[in-house]
Design brief:
The structure is a homodimer of 482-residue chains. The first copy, chain A, is of the alpha/beta class and 482 residues long. Chain A folds into two domains: 282 residues, nicotinate phosphoribosyltransferase (Alpha-Beta Barrel); 176 residues, TIM Barrel, CATH 3.20.20.70. Chain A is 37% helix and 20% strand. In chain A, the strands form five sheets. Chain A has a seven-stranded antiparallel β-sheet with strand order 13-12-1-5-3-19-20. The first copy, chain A, has a six-stranded parallel β-sheet with strand order 7-6-11-10-9-8. A four-stranded mixed β-sheet of chain A has the order 18-14-15-21. In chain A, helix 3 runs antiparallel to helix 4 and helix 11 runs parallel beside helix 12. The longest helix of chain A is centred in the N-terminal third of the chain and has 24 residues. Chains A and B meet through helix 1, helix 3, helix 6, helix 7 and helix 8 of A and helix 1, helix 3, helix 6, helix 7 and helix 8 of B. Chains A, B: It catalyses: 5-phospho-alpha-D-ribose 1-diphosphate + nicotinate + ATP + H2O = nicotinate beta-D-ribonucleotide + ADP + phosphate + diphosphate. Chains A, B: Its EC number is 6.3.4.21. Chains A, B: Keywords: Glycosyltransferase, Ligase, Phosphoprotein, Pyridine nucleotide biosynthesis, Transferase.
Chain lengths: 482, 482
């Protein structure tokens, strides 16, 4: 993404509004926009944020080429003065974000943009596109990896991804969410993440018979020899032929390691148990059994419960598209506008008949609150930017909707962390994105801050996201004004 | 996509297999691979193919850069001789495809690659990725457009698309499927398709009040003035303020055209009917009412049935992700290998316990068969490459599974068209991709070849895809061999 000019990757209305701000308002008026989401995908109790590195690339590259200007002119919607202004357009604002691989929860700002109104408006669509996509896949991957109970999960979805980027950045996000490797070579090259893969049915079919195909493969890749055993008949042909080849390798004095079979069709529980017995009886107890074929977290969980003898899972379509919930519902809403006369941000609120859709006004920050003893999350607390939580004081949390539900935290019983970090200051990036494998390790730590009850696949225990008293008051005041 | 090197956009196993073919087989052995799919998405009776122009770009650009070679070397999987060979790798084969915007049906080759085995293997993943994605969205869009019964549908999904490409090529595919325009400016620039958009809630919220926001917008865009009326209260505030502004425009002597309101929340049936009455009573009978808010083909169909007064539909998440079916199940299977000794293609078949997954062997072509009188499709007939259907002869079609079900077509009662066209010959592209709006027009003609019963949203009438007697015999012979 770093080489592509994605400046026009925006909805037309961002540009028509920009021209409006340019002509009808003080174009330097500073606004605060929050990117947040309203509910976790897949009825999960948490989400994993991802995509910030690509947002940084996008912002750093933001500029209107001559051909962009010419194109905008050709639409007939834009005046010369505005197009002239766009020629020297650059992003000069501040951006705060929750680091990639972090747990994120509904209603809290994942990205906060503080910038001149028209700049903040332009970047809305691309920020949403990038963060929505990668957070969706990272969250799905975390669920799939959780269902595999410590086994490795491989991302195999490129051919079913929604276009090249969905494959490339989807693989990145899947690795952040916990996948051990991807089949996607370009993603491996771009992000320095492990790549994995063996052969397809076409390899087997291109040889006169299965045995010679297996032999040829084993000769070439003796140290990573996974044989696909289901082209003709898994138990009658595939597994016996694989054992023949493994035996030949052994007989030739080779030390077998990192070898095994892959099942890609049929009843994976039954076939894996049978194959395990046949392999063990032949003395190949350390041959692994991997499986693929339209897997998702529910199928893996069920296979685990059935005692399937599979310890390596290749997951494609369901993970790369987040099939049961293919969109992350991130939105980007105006939260405040700076008033020069008042020298302060004036909070803004979006009203809706649907209470769930009413926004949180003001320039905000987020404290994550942990149990001091076990470092599990108690809640997230959204505050106004000037508020400070002092861990030496008592902290009262209350449910923002059912306000009588209160929790009192005593000094010394909790720790806190501010989770929005500065990424851009006055248009300059001041944040170093970690390597993807480091983000993965961080994500694993993050998942450790959840109780198991919040990680289960169905009806997980929800994490509270509360508002400070000051923010809650501001919200109620604004609501009652309308 | 034309400027990007997507050569490594492939699964690792394509490359490990390539090295295998390179070392263990005659690397110039020619293979036939078919890209086809097993069932239509969304329980539809048809699919629309799209993405060929991007496949052409991909094939034309196929080459391994020095940095690609260096990366592959770093994996430790590839030998020097093979890496050296990759340096001068190019595609030298033939590709046939069904043109974009065409109706396509399960089991028939949408793309056919005839090339040296290793070349045909490399391109598998990218071809699947591109065709699967765009065909998925074009098909979904055709359903959505059908549900709108002649009203215009606008593609608004960029922010929820699965990454930049999903937004860009998804918009392209949605327009092929019948959308009148997209909000995605980059897609507009790249493909010369209409762009559309007005303003967001943030525009309204950035002004002291709704009325001044409307006035400012109308002043700037008098000829495309769509006012978003649901920021505060649709019927009490939004619509009356819009009418105030329309009246002021009229009073100033302006001839109002292409103007109206947009509803983005609440009960769209109720609100649109009420708003229509209020607008009509104020003398703005020609003001249009557009709507958005998580629409899909079922919601639009229901709103139409309820008599909603909406004639312009903005569709986002559900269309750009094909939410109820986010993957098109295209696969790519070996169908034949050329045998120099026999001077002929030897058919190959993939066996499966699941009969649905058994492939059609051989080098094939497809005839589409139409009723002569009304040009509606009777069936598709998959034949071997050397077969010819002569419309002056009787044609007997039979169901390939329930072979006693036969249809006899008399000479003069039907017409035929071969639907796979040559795209590459010996590595050279010989096909000119039409402009996207021309593909859209072609797609509309294609949809006219379906009976209405095959276009309905639920339980549509299926189209038959039959096999010629010769192909059917070949398939049964190969199956009984195993």
């Amino acid at each position: 993404m770093s080489k592509r000019n994605l400046t026009l990757l925006t909805d037309l209305y961002e540009l028509t509004m920009m021209q409006g701000y340019y002509k009808e308002k003080d174009m330097n008026e500073t606004a605060v926009f929050d990117m947040f989401f309203r509910s976790n995908p897949n009825k999960n109790a948490y989400s994993i944020c991802a995509g910030l590195a690509q947002v940084i690339d996008y912002i750093n590259n933001l500029h209107f080429d001559n051909e962009d200007i010419a194109y905008l002119k050709s639409t007939g919607l834009f005046k010369e003065a505005f197009l002239e202004y766009l020629k020297s357009f650059k992003f000069t604002g501040d951006i705060y974000a929750i680091p990639e691989g972090s747990l994120i929860f509904p209603k809290e700002p994942v990205v906060k943009v503080i910038a001149p109104l028209m700049q903040a408006q332009l970047v809305e669509t691309a920020i949403l596109n990038i963060i929505n996509h990668q957070s969706l896949i990272a969250t799905k991957a975390a669920r799939v990896v959780h269902s595999a109970r410590g086994d490795k999960v491989l991302e195999f979805g490129l051919r079913r991804a929604q276009g090249p980027d969905a494959g490339i950045y989807g693989a990145r996000a899947a690795v952040i969410g916990g996948c051990a490797a991807t089949s996607n070579v370009l993603a491996g090259q771009l992000f320095n993440i492990p790549v994995s893969g063996t052969h397809a049915h076409s390899w087997i079919m291109s040889f006169p018979d299965e045995l010679s195909a297996f032999r040829a493969y084993a000769k070439l890749y003796p140290n990573s020899c996974t044989l696909l055993v289901d082209t003709y008949d898994t138990l009658e042909s595939g597994v016996p032929n694989a054992i023949k080849v493994f035996s030949e390798m052994k007989a030739s004095g080779m030390k077998l390691q990192n070898y095994g079979i892959r099942l890609d069709s049929g009843d994976l529980a039954y076939l894996s148990k049978k194959a395990r017995i046949i392999l063990d009886d032949a003395g190949f107890e350390d041959a692994f059994i991997s499986a693929s074929n339209d897997l998702d977290e529910y199928l893996i969980d069920s296979l685990k419960q059935q005692g399937a003898k599979i310890h390596l899972w290749g997951v494609g379509t369901s993970m790369i598209t987040s099939r049961d919930c293919p969109a992350f519902g991130g939105v980007y809403k105006l939260a405040a506008i700076y008033d020069k006369n008042q020298c302060a941000f004036v909070p803004k609120i979006k009203i809706s008949e649907n209470t769930e859709k009413v926004t949180n006004p003001g320039n905000k920050k987020i404290y994550r609150i942990y149990h001091k003893d076990n470092h599990k999350i108690i809640a997230d607390l959204i505050c106004l930017e000037d508020e400070i939580v002092d861990i030496n004081e008592e902290l009262v949390l209350f449910d923002p909707n059912e306000t009588w539900k209160k929790t009192m935290l005593f000094p010394g019983s909790y720790t806190v962390k501010e989770i929005l970090v500065p990424v851009f200051k006055k248009g300059k990036c001041i944040y170093d994105s970690p390597a993807v494998m480091d983000i993965q390790a961080y994500c694993r730590q993050e998942l450790d801050t959840l109780w198991d009850e919040s990680k289960r696949l169905a009806y997980p225990h929800k994490i509270h996201v509360d508002l400070s008293q000051k923010l809650w008051n501001m919200r109620v005041d604004l609501l009652s004004k309308y």
